[in-house]
Structures are given as C-alpha cells and as structure tokens.
Design a protein that fits this description.
Helix content: 40-55%
Structural class: alpha/beta
Strand content: 5-15%
Shape: globular
CATH superfamily of the largest domain: Response regulator
Number of helices: 12
Number of strands: 12
Radius of gyration: 31 Å
C-alpha cells in the first residue's frame, strides 16, 4: 500500500515538474515575443530617426527659391520661366502634392547681375531656408552663386545656364540639368552648317554676350567642323541698346551666316537693325531667341530665320507640347510667353516631379539626388529626346534641334535649305 502510495506521489511530483516546465516555456515564449516586438519597434523608430528631412521640407510643404532676371534686358525670359514654374506648382498641388507635401517657391530678381544672384542665394538659404534653387537663368549669375549652393548642401535644379563647368559631377554633385552647354549648341550648329552648305563660300560671324556663356559659345563653334569658316566675333553687353556697330562689322567681313546668342527681344532688334543697315545673311538664333515674342516684334523679317535649340518647337504638335501649351494658356500665358524659356522651365518641372515621387517620404538633398540618378528613358512627350541621368551624368539631354520660322511660327526642321 505504502509502495503504491509512494508511486502515486512520485507520479504527481513528475507531473507537477512537467507542468512547471511547460509554464516556464510559455512565459519564455511570451517574453521572447514581447522582446522581438520591442526590438522591431525600436528598429522602426531608429529608421525614422535616421531620416533627416532636408532644409525647407516639412510634413506638408517643400519650399524652393529661384533667382530670375525680372528686370533689365532679359526680363521677358524671367517672366516666362516663372509662369511655367507656377504651372508646375499648380499641377502638383492640385493633385494632392507629393507624399502629402505641397510645393511652393520664392522668386528674387537678379537683373542678370551676378552680385545680386549671390545675395539672392544667401537670402534663400539663410533666411527663407529653401530646399533647393530651381530654374534660375544665366550662366554668369549662377556661376557666382553655385559655390554657395554647394557649401550649404543645396540642390541646383534645371536652370537655363550652360557653363561647361556646371556639368562636372565631382565639383557640382548637386547640380542637375536638361539644358546642354552653350559650347555644345554651337558645336552642333557648326556640324549642321557644314553638312548642309559645305565649307566653300561660307563665312560665319558670331555675336555673343560678353560673359562665360559667350566665350564658350565661340569655343564650341571653333572646335566644330565649321570652325575654319569663322571670320568675325562680336560681343554685346547685357545693357546694350543697339547692335549697329556689330552689324556693320559683319557687313565689312562679308558674312554669309550670323549666329546671334541673345534673348528673344534682342534677336528681334538685331533683325530690324540688320535690315536697316543692309546685312544680307542667314540668321541663326540661340535658344533664348526662340519665342513667339521674337516673331511678333520682328514681323516678316523673322521669316526664314533659324534657331539652334536643345528642345523642340513650343508650337509643335506632340503630346508633351500640347499639354504644355494647354497648361500655360490656362494660367494666362500670352503667345509671346510660349517660348524656350518657359518650355525649359516646364520640362525641368516634369523631371522635378518625377524625382520627388521617386525620393519618397524621406526627402533631402541626398535622397533626391539618388532619385534623379535613377531616371532613364524618361519621356517628356516629345518636348525633348528621352532623358537619361546617372551617378556620373547629371545632364539628362545632349541633343541639338534646329528650328526655323515658317509662316510666322517656329517649327522643327530636318532638311535645311
């Protein structure tokens, strides 16, 4: 009996130990699960803490700055670019923003003056705390301000500025553009000129602004296959009121072709003065000359003039161009504001929107840079050729397109005559 009793007690003891052991396992499992959840939460919180939003970025807003020539000879270009930026802002914000953030921008006038552009950069960064500098105009002004942008980890996005040094990714890692250099444009112009007319009898005059852009415009042509045809180089100042002396020099040089690197208002004035003084030549305008404004101001004298552009005609019949015009007119644009300046700013806005979407919620200079570098074969609906960026190429567009005024409209042409 005692033996049986001891056996039963032994069994109960073993079962009790097993029960206690099982209970310990349950508690351990529960504790392990809780610890795991705690670790995951801590990891998630750490990840959130690691994401430092860029200056000018909040939960509901992204603020940009833009230095523009809102007064002076190039004021029309500044006004055109700013209107296209407004169109971009409205498109993005009316669609709910990007990751819940609305975009906004501040414009400061620089009158195409480098000293004012530097002051604007300091104002944008130090006082307004902007995220990036967007769509500014002019190489000389931007070249003066770019070191300030770089020193303050500030992106420089899609300006109309073409100094060759801008495209050095090692020097300017936060600079992104869809606008090839002035050098590339006249290099392409020289190629087109020779392929169309040959070198026999061709004599070229270049009229360029007295700036870095102007010198690189000259260098690009000299390095092209048409370089040997250059017979006259003239410069103009940003406050010039007449181009008579330059035109008389071209007449004396016997030029057959003149490349005019100016804005659209100045291009029209050049054509008018060339007619008055008797300069008989083919006229080739740079990107800044290509707008309805130049045609309106020069009238019939603009007919047949060429434009060396990095972008298709703003009046072309392509999906991207149609959307651009529709948005611009809806925003109150005049025909004169349908131009290269506004189209470049609008196209840069398309790439900006794509980059912001790719960057995600953690938005700062580094994440947006990486997002831009991931963009390949980006379609602008025919405004430009497909755009491609990479870690060692922050210039998405490398093409030159030739336009001509035909029946009062700039059109893209392939076969010149």
């Amino acid at each position: 009996m005692k033996s049986k009793l001891w056996k039963l007690l032994a069994i109960f003891a073993v079962l009790g130990l097993v029960a206690v052991g099982c209970g310990d396992d349950d508690d351990s499992s529960s504790s392990s699960s809780e610890a795991s959840s705690s670790e995951e939460a801590s990891s998630s919180e750490a990840a959130e803490e690691e994401c430092e939003l860029g200056r000018g970025v909040s939960d509901d807003k992204i603020l940009f700055g833009s230095s523009q020539p809102m007064t002076g000879n190039l004021a029309a270009l500044g006004e055109q670019a700013v209107l296209a930026m407004e169109v971009t802002k409205d498109r993005i914000n009316e669609a709910g923003g990007i990751n819940g953030r609305m975009i906004d921008f501040i414009v400061q006038d620089d009158a195409y003056n480098p000293e004012k552009t530097v002051a604007n950069a300091q104002y944008f960064i130090e006082q307004e705390k902007v995220f990036a500098i967007w769509a500014s105009i002019g190489s000389a002004p931007l070249k003066a301000a770019l070191p300030i942008h770089n020193e303050n980890n500030t992106l420089t996005l899609f300006p109309w500025a073409q100094d060759l040094s801008f495209y050095d990714v090692d020097v300017n890692p936060l600079f992104f553009s869809v606008n090839p250099s002035a050098y590339a444009q006249t290099f392409g112009f020289g190629k087109v000129l020779v392929e169309t007319y040959g070198l026999d009898g061709i004599q070229v005059g270049l009229m360029t602004i007295n700036s870095v852009d102007g010198q690189q415009t000259v260098d690009g042509f000299k390095d092209s296959i048409g370089g040997s045809a250059l017979v006259d180089e003239q410069t103009w100042e940003r406050d010039s009121t007449t181009y008579g002396p330059q035109i008389l020099s071209f007449i004396d040089s016997g030029v057959t072709d003149v490349y005019i690197g100016t804005g659209d208002t100045q291009f029209a004035q050049f054509l008018l003065e060339a007619d008055q003084l008797g300069l008989d030549a083919r006229f080739w305008g740079s990107t800044g000359t290509i707008s309805a404004n130049s045609i309106e101001l020069a009238g019939d004298l603009s007919e047949g003039a060429y434009g060396v552009n990095v972008i298709s005609s703003a009046n072309g019949d392509k999906p991207g161009l149609n959307a651009y015009r529709e948005a611009m007119f809806a925003a109150g644009a005049t025909e004169a504001q349908i131009s290269t300046a506004s189209l470049l700013a609008y196209t840069g806005g398309l790439v900006l929107e794509e980059g912001l979407n790719r960057a995600g919620e953690c938005l700062n200079s580094q994440t947006l840079s990486a997002a831009f570098e991931s963009i390949t074969d980006f379609s602008t609906g025919g405004i430009m050729r497909p755009l491609n960026f990479s870690s060692d190429n922050h210039l998405g567009n490398n093409d030159v397109i030739i336009l001509q005024v035909q029946n009062g409209v700039w059109v893209e042409v392939e076969n010149l005559g």
